């Protein structure tokens, strides 16, 4: 665990259509989807990039919970994350974190989702093997234009859809231009991945370097080229986009 607290923006990504396998698993646990809004909760450090979401990643190896968040809202995340939320007054009952149902990431893959601010109205849940169970919520929203991890994972999914048991089209949404920087143009992550010749999501050292370069350039040199804060510096736009998402009940602050 990190010594310094990390503040995340938790993005509420609504599940709009469940795969048959998931429906079966939920009905076996007598979890009735009727009248409920179920959200994948993705922890991000880059709320200003949410216009460019192209899918939501879960780990096929993680067991997630579906937790009652009050007002007929249910959250999909790790138990660890919901427990933390319950002590941050983000849930109905402080310290209560019993799941209403449990579901493996592997059966959520292929679900249709609606991600706030994304230029794409309908996206899919896809697998990412490098998602860590002990960080954030265990759910990662994909922004391939600005996240080197997300970009290289999307390429891998497009190259091996059979292996991942997905449809290639689910992983084929184009990166969206969100931020322009002097060094990398409008698709920071793609440019850096190509310059550093990163070939695989398992290329740990090169990816760590790519992440560092992308984060610094976007934050200190970037200008928004999309959305309500188009033309503003990323430094200025970031807290504003975050505040807007929170005000519209599409996100909340989650600390760990
Ligand atoms: B970021 P930190 Cl555009 N396992 O969001 C692996 N990665 C995780 C995770 C987990 N359990 N939980 C969150 N993350 C990712 C956007 C983004 C992110 C962009 C660019 C860089 C970037 C879209 N994905 O992160 O270790 C999430 O991806 C660069 C590190 O707490 C989250 O922000 O510093 C970030 O890692 C949190 O990483």
From TrEMBL:
Keyword hit for Nucleus: no
The keyword Transcription regulation is assigned to this record: no
Any single Gene Ontology cellular-component annotation: cytoplasm
Key words of the record: Aminoacyl-tRNA synthetase, ATP-binding, Ligase, Nucleotide-binding, Protein biosynthesis
Molecular function as annotated in GO: aminoacyl-tRNA deacylase activity; ATP binding; leucine-tRNA ligase activity; sequence-specific mRNA binding
GO biological process per UniProt: leucyl-tRNA aminoacylation; regulation of TORC1 signaling
Coiled coil regions, renumbered to chain: none
Lineage: superkingdom: Eukaryota
Family affiliation: Belongs to the class-I aminoacyl-tRNA synthetase family.
Listed name of the protein: leucine--tRNA ligase
Native organism: Sugiyamaella lignohabitans
